[in-house]
Design a protein that fits this description.
Strand order of the largest sheet: 13-12-11-5-2-1-15-14
Distance between the termini: 22 Å
Oligomer: single chain
CATH topology of the domain at 475-555: Immunoglobulin-like
Number of strands: 22
Bound molecules: 1-O-alpha-D-glucopyranosyl-D-fructose
Shape: globular
């Protein structure tokens, strides 16, 4: 591992600026708010911050619809604020990673505004235009946010492709001018001293040569990990990432292990690491997101096994449960009432002891929960409101109350509620009216309480961040699932030439007994979520209490 590979032992913290901290009374977070919390983040011990998009944007998709890649959205502050953040973060040894969204732009981007309605525009070919087929959209592909993925330009009678909202037009990466623009954008931010980039849906950039109907799906098989995805990434990487030594994490939608081995190969020709989402589909009934289902524990473990063993020595993955698109893990896989703190810690340990780079999403470090909204009026996310409209009003496939149950489990707004800083009005997030309602539990679940309690989830995260830096086997060890068929315990081993590490997690509220043959070994506990576990020799027959986890280090 070289110095430039600092990220292999690092932990990255994701900030969703709109919901992090409002320095005034706008009801939305901003850059000065982030600056005011850097000491808190330093105390947690994270190495880098990933900021979701803060560029100029109409905010149809909260910044993932960029209208100008070179300027800061005034809702968040100014470029001077951003420069200050960079400097303040650097002075605390915290790096900054920017989100880059280049699969699509906002339809408010000047390229699109010029291209729309004008076949002669120099920017027309920056986007993907097709003639109607039989008077209708060119293909039956579905937008990820519901509905057909093509929108009509009435003036020219051609459709443009939008894999996400109709206000997010897909860029045409076949056009070398588009690739040049992307290199220029990324260079601009790298020149500013940014340490890295998170690349939004980057495995969707290469579209097929032919656009045809998908008779068996929503079209994703034609454009996911498309024909030139690797080639384009190599081109950008050589021109920018390698030149600046940037860390890069690609968000890979519906990808495969084979492709991810290539995207994150150790020769460094494409990206540093990948996010994949297969483990977060363990609670999708028949692979469908908009359903309500308990999670399939055995499949969850087998997915981790597939990725941990498959990337080992070949590529590198991000480790995470939460982000701004996913519900809160403590509500999703843990217990957000009686066992909130225990299950939040257990879940943290279960991914942080694996190989990869862990990501903590704001609020996860204090065990924030889903808000459990009861009315559609409380939701703001366009995906949630679109799906509600489609399923309840148009298709009538579910009742309103069924849909509210589904949203309570699946909506992206579950993670976007404002950060809970203290027990004051609006959880200390804003002096104004928050843009999205705060969860009712903020007087109990907040950062101030967590920092004042030595046994809190916060200090558990602080400890696991530290362990990764001290205990090499966490970074390098091979992964082996010791109990793939166990219905309640997730127990895996990591092994290097000098150490073994055994991490055992009870994912449920019943007690479970477990027998690990450790007789005669040089053994010590390095982590546990029940305070009474003695950090000495573990017993052979252990009882794991509800949501208990223990991590044992064995010197070989
Ligand atoms: O998300 C990509 C993506 O496909 C999902 O996580 C998506 O939200 C989900 O599958 C829908 O069911 C990225 C961003 O993280 C997300 O916030 C953006 O909305 C999206 O790209 C478009 O830029």
């Amino acid at each position: 591992m070289t110095n430039s590979e600092w990220w292999r032992t690092a932990t990255i913290y994701q900030i969703y600026p709109k919901s992090f901290c409002d320095s005034g009374n706008k009801g939305t977070g901003d850059i000065q708010g982030i600056i005011s919390k850097l000491d808190y983040l330093k105390k947690l011990g994270v190495d880098a911050l990933w900021l979701t998009p803060i560029y100029q944007s109409p905010m149809i998709d909260n910044g993932y619809d960029i209208a100008d890649y070179y300027s800061i959205n005034p809702d968040f502050g100014t470029m001077a604020d951003f420069d200050e953040l960079l400097e303040e973060a650097k002075s605390r040894n915290i790096r900054i990673i920017m989100d880059i969204v280049v699969n699509h732009t906002s339809t408010e981007h000047h390229w699109f505004k010029s291209a729309l309605g004008n076949k002669g525009s120099e920017y027309r070919d920056y986007y993907i235009w097709k003639d109607p087929v039989d008077g209708k959209a060119p293909t039956n592909w579905q937008s990820k946010f519901g509905g057909n993925a093509w929108a009509l330009d009435e003036v020219t009678n051609q459709y443009y492709l939008h894999l996400f909202a109709k206000e997010q037009a897909d860029l045409n990466w076949e056009n070398s001018k588009v690739r040049k623009e992307v290199k220029d954008i990324i260079s601009f931010w790298a020149e500013k001293g940014i340490d890295g980039f998170r690349l939004d849906v980057i495995n969707l950039i290469s579209k097929p040569n032919e656009f045809i109907n998908d008779e068996s799906g929503d079209g994703r098989r034609f454009y996911t990990d498309g024909p030139k995805a690797h080639q384009y990434l190599q081109e950008i990487s050589e021109a920018v990432f390698q030149k600046y030594g940037s860390v890069t994490v690609g968000e890979m939608s519906s990808t495969t292990l084979d492709h991810c081995q290539k995207y994150s190969a150790q020769d460094g020709k494409e990206l540093s690491m990948v996010f994949n989402f297969h483990h977060l589909k363990a609670d999708y009934k028949n692979g469908e997101k908009w359903t309500k289902a308990p999670f399939d524990f055995l499949s969850l473990k087998s997915i981790f096994n597939h990725w941990q063993t498959g990337l080992n020595g070949k590529g590198w993955g991000a480790l995470f449960w939460c982000n701004h698109d996913q519900p809160r893990v403590v509500s999703r896989l843990g217990n957000d009432e009686e066992y909130r703190e225990l299950s939040a810690k257990m879940l943290a340990s279960s991914v942080h002891m694996m190989q990869g780079t862990p990501y903590i999403y704001q609020g996860e470090e204090i065990g924030m929960t889903n808000p459990h909204y009861t009315s559609i009026d409380q939701y703001r996310d366009l995906e949630s409101t679109n799906m509600f409209d489609i399923m309840v009003n148009q298709e009538k496939s579910v009742s309103e109350s069924e849909m509210l149950d589904i949203l309570d489990q699946k909506s992206r707004d579950n993670s976007r509620t404002p950060m809970q800083w203290n027990g004051n009005d609006n959880a200390g997030f804003t002096l104004g009216t928050p843009w999205l309602s705060i969860a009712n539990n903020y007087q109990d679940v907040n950062a101030e309480n967590a920092v004042n309690d030595k046994n809190s989830v916060f200090y558990f995260y602080q400890k696991i961040i530290q362990l990764r830096k001290e205990i090499e086997v966490i970074t390098s060890g091979d992964y082996y699932d010791l109990m793939p068929e166990h219905k309640a315990l997730f127990c895996y081993q990591r092994e290097s030439s000098t150490h073994r590490l055994i991490a055992v997690h009870n994912f449920y509220a019943n007690e479970e007994s477990v027998s690990l043959d450790l007789k005669g070994e040089d053994v010590r506990y390095i982590l546990a979520n029940y305070g009474d576990v003695e950090f000495t020799q573990p017993q052979e027959g252990m009882i794991l209490r509800p949501y208990e986890c223990r991590v044992i280090l064995i010197q070989k």
